[in-house]
Amino acid sequence: MYKKLLTILFLLVSLAAIGQDKMSLKGEMLDYKGENFLLLSGDDGGVFVVDSARVDFNGLIRFNWEGIPGFYRIANKGNKIDFKIDRKDFWFSLSGSMENGELQFPENDENYQYQYYLSEFSILNESIEDLREDLLNLNEKDSLFKEKYSEFKNLKKSKTQFA
Question: pTM to 2 decimals?
Answer without folding.
Answer: 0.59
